[in-house]
Each structure stands twice: as C-alpha cells, then as structure tokens.
Amino acid sequence: MRIIKLTEASKYNILENLLKRSPNSYDQFESVVADILYDIKKNGDEAIFRYTKKFDGADINAQNIVVTQEEIEEAYNLVDSSLIEVIRKAIINIREFHIKQKQYSWFDSKPDGTILGQKITALSRVGVYVPGGKAAYPSSVLMNIIPAKVAGVETIIMTTPPGVDGKVNPGTLVAANEAGVDIIYKVGGAQAIGALAYGTESIPKVDKIVGPGNIYVALAKKAVFGYVSIDSVAGPSEILIIADEAANPRFIAADLLSQAEHDEMASAILITTSEELANKVSAQVDLFVKELSRTEIIQKSLDNYGYILIAQSMEEAIQVANEIASEHLEIVTKDPFNIMTKIKNAGAIFLGEYSSEPLGDYFAGPNHVLPTNGTAKFFSALSVDDFIKKSSIISYSREALEPIHKDIELFAEAEQLTAHANSIKVRFEK
C-alpha cells in the first residue's frame, strides 16, 4: 500500500479522490435509469419481465415472480445447517440491539386542559432491496428486515434478482425467512426500485425502500425519492483505522482488506502516528493479497482508494478521521475509549484490537447499513427510527386557549395571514 505523510495538500487530494466514488458523481448513468423507471411506471409487469430477461437471463412472469413456500423449503435443504444456526444466533443479537431503539407514543397533560404529545406509527409497507450478482449477502437481509419488524411494519416486501434458472440464492431466502419477511419477488436492478416505488400489477407500491445495490440501484433510489422514502443513496464500502505504535500490524492489514475485497471502489485507509507500523502494515498487506481469494478486486481497490497516512500527532489523525467521516472506523490504540470521545463523524466505531469490522457486519447486533462517502457527518446507521413516523398531538381546552389567543392572533396578523388570526378570534366572539 502507498504510504503518504499528511499535509494540507495530501489531505485535500485524498478527500477529493474519495468523493469521486459518490453516486452523485455518476451522471452518465442517470438517463439510463430514468428510462427504466419511466418504462416501469408506464408498462408495469410487462417491463419488469422484459428487463429481468435482458439483465438476468431469467424467464419471469406473473405466475413465478413470487418466491413460493416450496422454494424456501428447498433453500433450507441447500444451506449448511451450521450456517442456519449462525444466522439464528445473529438474529438474536440484532433484534436485542434494535429493541432498545424502539420509541413509544407519549402525552403530556397540564391542569389547564392542555394536552401535547407525539404519536409513533410504524410504516405500513416497506420494500427491502437485496442485491444478487457477484455475491449474496444474507447478513444485509437481516440488517434491513429486523429493524423493520421491531418497528412494527405491517408488510415487508423483498426484491432480489434471480439467477438464469429463475431461482434466488438459497442463503438469501433462508435469511429472509428467518428474519420474518412477508413476500419475496424475483426482480432486481433499477427496475425493482421502480416497481416498489410506483407499483405494478404484481408488486404493490411501498412507503419506503431500503437496502444496498449497484450504481443503477443507488441512482434509481435517488430518482424515486418523493414518491417513496428511502434509507440513503449508498456509496462503496469503506474502512478507516486509527492506530498507534502499540497496534498489531497483522491485525490492521487483515482489517483493511476486509473492506477492500467488497469491490474495486471500496476504500481502505490507515492513519497512524508510527512510521514503523505503517511499513509493517504495508508489507503484511502485500502478503495477504497473495493469499486471499478476491485478489484482483482487492488490488484495484488498494491502488485506487487505499492509503496509509502518517500523522504528526494523534490529534491530527482524529481531525482527518472526522473530515473523512468513514463508514467504519476502527480505533486500535492504547486508549481507544479516549480517542472515541473525540470522534464526531463515523458510521460505526470499533474499539480495540479484538473488535474488528466483520464483527459488526455479521454478529454483534448494531446495524451494518451505514452512511458512506462522508455522509456520516449528517446521516446515521439504519435503525428502528427509519421505519416509523411521528405525528404531533395538540389538544387545548377553552380555558387553556383563552389567555393566549390574542398572542396567536398578533403573530398571524404580523405574517398577514388574517384567516389564521380569524380562526382563533371567532372562538372568543362575544
């Protein structure tokens, strides 16, 4: 991996390079996505079946677009029983973590007859997109479905691209069934997002779409926002590690590569105050790359977006980490909890040398659907909050309104909204 000493110029160049990976930088694909979405909106199922044949090679129609109970049972026979057991253990951890996020309606009443409050209502219908293609991710299925279930969403719909044989990855089906999905449709890509956003003869319109996907899926979600809500427009995966001279270089190298193997656009960055550690990690990365299975993807990721940055102080390392606002942030220092208190921007924070990023991906419980490309400055991890809406409750008695009605009328008249003022005034006419 390349080793760079941090300067103002190098910081600027690195940040600019990382931002190139944002879905907002791929305008050339937007017209293709717009055409697909328009086609789905106009032609419904017919367009869905046509695109599924074109992109996935599968013959899907109204009779086989829904995954059947028989297909789910077949998936259980194809998935190793030990993996099913691990999925069930992970579900317990994920559910327990998200239950703690659950919010409840509240009301505050006063003696004068004033009642104020907030009513929490779960979304009625949510669509979960699950990618196919290069790899299947049952863990993402769990992370998207479970918080929706905890929130109390009435109907959870999943869409995922089929293989040429018209079948869905068995691990994906098992995870979805264990997590509690209601119905699964065999459709992927931008066309799936369009179907969820607009509705077709087979697929009902949803209130919100969540889940990761390729650039076409990301841009489609961005385009349909407003017809439906979305979780976020996700970019490629990324990891940033802050480490000092006490860190184990073999551990650090392994953790950097855990994200570099996702795809060629993934980012893996180490910031350290130790030049010796930097050199050892770089050498260890080279050794691991030769041993691991996704060598070509890893190498392209490292060549394009991999950095080992040498900071003059831990304060500078923290400042740069906050500027990058990484999806995953590991802190592997003598006192990681102290460093953590100074971190403002990160999707998920992993503390100590035994809290490696895959622990969060699969098992610990916190959600692994996280903000990317610097959006951790203003976005949070997917949570139960993403599947609820809040309604304000206001109730005043005459006795509560009387002493303040002239204040409200004055405010409304100052904005030249006389009908507003009159709505209050008529209640106190003599």
From TrEMBL:
Cofactor(s) in the UniProt record: Zn(2+)
- CC per GO annotation: cytosol
This protein is called Histidinol dehydrogenase
The keyword Ion transport appears for this protein: no
Enzyme Commission (EC) number = 1.1.1.23
**Catalyses which reaction(s):** L-histidinol + 2 NAD(+) + H2O = L-histidine + 2 NADH + 3 H(+)
Free-text remark on how the cofactor is bound: Binds 1 zinc ion per subunit.
Organism, as annotated: [Clostridium] fimetarium
| EC class name | oxidoreductase
PROSITE patterns per UniProt:
HISOL_DEHYDROGENASE
> What does the entry list as the binding residues for NAD(+)?
Y129, Q191, N214
